[in-house]
Amino acid sequence: MRGKTAEDARLLELLDPVAEAAGYEIVRLRLMGGSAQRRLQIMAERPEDGEMLVEDCVRLSRAISEVMDAADPISGEYVLEVSSPGVDRPLTRLKDFAEYEGHEARIELDRLAENRKRFRGVLAGVEGDQVAIDLEGEEETALVPFAWIVDAKLILTDELMKRGAAQRAERLAADENQSDQEGR
User: What are the residue boundaries of the Ribosome maturation factor RimP N-terminal domain, all occurrences included (predicted)?
Assistant: First the structure.
């Protein structure tokens, strides 16, 4: 789910170790576009705090560019874009579903379950290799095998925005505290 195509999977095999060595995790990778101008889009974050600042994007972009230039795994020209997953991020790893428990999400499956492929509800954690989601109008929590999920994304809500604002405030306070200590 972090990549959609076989080519994405090959690029992830090449670039996961590069990102890890630079101190990041690739959340999602997509190689898009036709033969004329392709775009390699990489969403990443720091594993310890989930952050991805502009400086982080630059650092990871440089590390990836070096490897891509040497390995040349994409025929033709392409543009590399490295970004943060954003507030209404894609959920691509099992740990993402646990991390965002209590927030609304949209999930799409590769097969029918309960006569549908798309679900919307509040994430209720993870049980083994299954994602738990409380669906609107349902009393029972639904369990969906992670392997069946082809696309999942958080839904932008006030609660999610408040979480993002609180995390930014914590980061700014920590940065300010560190600057004060360095200035002494």
Answer: 14-88
